[in-house]
Amino acid sequence: MANLKDIQRQIKSVSNTQKTTRAMKLVSTAKLRRADELAKRSRLYAQKMNQVIAEIAGRINCAKVGGIENRCFNKIDNPKMVDIVFVTADKGLCGGFNIRTIKAVKALIKSYKEQNVKVRLRGIGKKGVEFFKYNEVELFDSVIDLSSKPDKARSDEFIRTSIMDFKDGKTDALHIVYNGYKNMLTQELHVNKVLPIDTDGFECEDSHSSMLEVEAQNEEVMLDSLVNKYVDFNLYYALIDSLAAEHSSRMQAMDTATNNAKEMVKGLKVKFNKARQAAITTELIEIISGVESMK
After folding, report:
1. Is the pLDDT of residue 47 over 70?
2. Element of type H or E holding 82
3. Co-location of 178 and 266 in the same domain
4. What is the CATH number of the domain that holds 94?
5. Which residues have C-beta within 8 Å of that of residue 105, sequence separation ≥ 6?
6. pLDDT for the residue 65
């Protein structure tokens, strides 16, 4: 028969856990509201940045004989080395948030290795970095306190090596992989090929209706500057979007944990009542048996 004190101890322990998970859910909900607002503003800027650079590159490509000479806009059919930058959380207790990103990175690495392409892995976030180190996967570079506190200057510094190595021909592609925010209940996995930049969507006919003015003598300088800003902000936006998704995922995970704890407490109370009734019944039987034996 279950010990009543042990059951009471379990009920108290699970109740305390329930209080903790409920508090963590409330904290994540509050943080999510702030992160969601920042992500919305940043998403609009990122979209406009992508549109502008694609349009300018497309116009120059249409107007210039031989197309754009900038390597960042040239298709590379047989890559030899690629950079993969991934973003995960610094903390756990957020459901499958981190593992989805890790699985996507592993699948991308496997795909490139099957093509005999070397991969340089660059990690942001403690959970992802620790996972790959534990599995003895070499990391070219890593940082573990940036995803929880996105900072534009540090983000730019981290990605700058990848940009320069691509421009110098040391690498042939740059991917950014992260789990982004879609809504309060859903996260969306992103595997974005940032370099080289794809401008196929811009048609030469579109240039006639465009309001952009590009000076021919400044086109290469402009493109080079835009590429840096484009890649810089893509990573910074990934950090912001990932942080909002992390809070969303943790809020759901803590809500589920709270409900599970509630159900567990309910079950333990039923178990406790049954054990108490059994103990009372046993005592009554012993008393009655004692009385009968004295007759």
Report:
1. yes
2. strand 81-87
3. no
4. 3.40.1380.10
5. 84, 86, 121, 128, 177
6. 46
